[in-house]
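Quick question: what would this complex look like in 3D?
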Amino acid sequence: MNDVWTSYDSKNFVLEGISLSIDRGTNYAIVGQSGSGKSTLLKLMNGMMIPSKGTIKIDYVTPNMNNKKFKKMLHTIGYIPQSLGLIKNITVLENILIGALPRLNTIQSLLKRFPEHEIQEAKRIISLVGLSGKEERKAYMLSGGEKRRVAIARALMQKPTILLADEIVSELDHVTAHEIMNLIADAQKRMNLTAIMVHHDMQIALEFANRVAVIKEGHKILEIGIEGDSIVDFQTGNINTEEIMEMYADDTKK
Amino acid sequence: MTPKNNLVIGIIIALVVVASYNVDANPIEFAEGLPNLAIVVEEMLLVEPKYIPTALWAMLETIQMAFIGTVVGTVIALPLSMFAARNLNSKYVYAPVRALLAAIRTFPSILWAILFVIMVGLGTFAGVLAIVMYTIGFVAKLQYEAIEAIDPDPVDAVSSIGVSKWQLIRYVVIPESASHLLSQILYMFEYNVRQTSILGLVGAGGIGFYIINYIKFFEYGKAAVFMLVVLAAVLFIDWVSVKIRDKYIVKSQHGMEVTTK
Ligand SMILES: Nc1ncnc2c1ncn2[C@@H]1O[C@H](COP(=O)(O)OP(=O)(O)O)[C@@H](O)[C@H]1O
Ligand SMILES: [Mg+2]
């Protein structure tokens, strides 16, 4: 992603010259205050929005929902929006099977005939995310944490290579947030996923990511790498944990 | 109350007075007509119970006509509503479909009935066709509005899996708008029973045929039997659909309290 500018109204830019480069298999975090442009950044990566200026490439393809080639790539890009986007009146299992739709032919999908192996796969993922026994619950009956597990399971059902998640744990209590993040971290390692997760809490990002970009008012103000306990500032090359900790403490205050 | 509001109310009152004058709606004439109503009511009280079985059969026929009309109309309306929804189609698709639906809706059912009586002759079939047309116009409109009002988040989330448009409709749009659909069909059915009850006035079958004929021959006692049966049937259907709605719809409309931002 190089020098990307975006605007919703062609007057005010929401992102002003963001450049990011994310390697395959990274657990990447984007942190920033509310309104800093984090969600917009994710929508650019899955082609729901296109930049006003600058270029974005995922494996040499430009994200754009209306582009046939990219639409195919979307099949294996899991995207969990801030609002999760579950379908309220259908069951957990049905919500999760939606992730398998790209693998179905027209007749199977119109008749809701999911092949047996897809149903088995969905059940495997359901137990993986800790929802066993709740397959037949309607989505609107679930708790906040459970809804997030369903959204994650739907994304995993896509057999993703990239996972985009927008503030998936922001509204959860500390314990549940950690359970959910551990779940994603496990899946990320096992499936060698590229996880790109947006947070507004720096602490969570530092705990789980290998790399963290801090966004403020549409600019990237900091990008750090984490190896074990040491934190490296990529812009200055400094390895100064305390200083960086102080910086983000200011920048991510609500 | 602001001066502006007063002005608006004043204008509305003035328009009502002018319009009443133009259409000859005279409160004094209404008052003078009340004794006539008394006569009619008095004669109606001479209800002739031996007509009840006939009236019940005629009502059953009416309900069947309304039922077929509602089901067939809805089945045709649903695909049309998919093409008329702005959030699923380009302008070149939804604009003509909407225009067609608007044209269908400009006709009240009684005009459709007259048209079909001319086309297929007197009888219940013309009435059913009239109800089908009316139902298409309204259910399609209610439904495309429901589709346009669905939560955009699931639509976005599932579109971003790269699914086809048909899959999106099948797995997101239909489930998300289904609860509205059931209540709309129930409402439409109730309304169609009432409408079908008067289609007999133009010879398109149903219980209205009896009512208009008895009234023509001043047999108010007989007409009253049929009218009471209509009243009872409509109340009964209202009551049943309230029950159905409580059972199936209220439950499924508890939203997801996922709050954003
Ligand atoms: N659909 C939209 N239309 C117009 N402005 C928007 C829209 N979505 C977001 N914005 C604006 O873009 C800015 C960044 O929003 P967003 O990317 O959602 O921030 P974040 O996810 O970091 O809270 C905000 O100022 C917001 O008001
Ligand atoms: Mg956001």
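Answer marked as accepted. Residues A 8, 14, 32, 34-40 surround adenosine-5'-diphosphate (ligand 1) (CB under 6 Å).
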